[in-house]
Design goal:
This protein is mostly beta strands. The chain is built from no helices and 15 strands. It has a single domain, classed as Sandwich (Jelly Rolls). The protein is about 0% helix and about 45% strand.
């Protein structure tokens, strides 16, 4: 019988979860809590000035990952990342396909640094996967501060899935996802003062 020590990680599958196990549309308060703040309603993540409880040797870190409590699968989903402040610096917003050992953030915690993560960068207008742009020419946030990015997911329980980024109303090409994927919406912040709100969540699960 396999044990965690003698087998390789594998992608988490929708069939490993019940159709109703999709979590809630909120930011994870426990993830990087020594750096980030989550609003009382759970909808807004922000990077405030340095907190006294931060114990890292380097400040500021290169990237600060922020995850949600959603684990989306077996249905169709849509939500908005409302970037309320990007402070004229890079910011990453998007999602990851989960592994049975947890998320793969890649290097330095940048969303889009691994082959199972996709991130939209509103400073350049690119969708990034595995550190490379896979779709370019999308609208950038012209003021370097605010904008809306919508994510749409079609996640059949036992078939390949699809995802789309919509940036200020412009739809990016389809992102193909593995069969039975379980998706974690997430972000990564680069500068103090950046702030992202979750809004407009819609979800419909099915067993098909």
């Amino acid at each position: 019988m396999d044990t965690p020590r003698d087998r390789s990680p594998s992608l988490l599958r929708a069939g490993d979860l019940s159709a109703s196990e999709v979590g809630s549309c909120a930011w994870n308060r426990e993830h990087n809590a020594e750096l980030l703040d989550v609003s009382p309603d759970g909808q807004t993540i922000s990077w405030p000035p340095r907190k006294p409880q931060y114990t890292g040797r380097i400040y500021p870190p290169a990237w600060v990952p922020a995850s949600t409590t959603m684990r989306l699968h077996s249905g169709a989903f849509r939500w908005d990342f409302v970037v309320e402040e990007m402070a004229e610096r890079q910011i990453g917003i998007g999602f990851m396909v989960l592994w049975d050992v947890g998320p793969d953030w890649g290097f330095f915690g940048y969303l889009g640094a691994s082959p199972t993560a996709w991130s939209y960068d509103p400073s350049s207008g690119d969708v990034v996967r595995n550190t490379k742009s896979i779709h370019g020419g999308l609208p950038r946030f012209v003021d370097g501060r605010q904008g809306i990015v919508t994510v749409e997911l079609d996640l059949p329980r036992s078939a390949p899935g699809r995802a789309h980024f919509l940036v200020n109303g412009v739809r990016a090409p389809t992102v193909d996802l593995p069969e039975g994927a379980v998706v974690l919406p997430a972000a990564c912040l680069l500068k103090e003062g950046q702030r992202v709100r979750l809004a407009g969540y819609q979800g419909a699960t099915s067993r098909g």
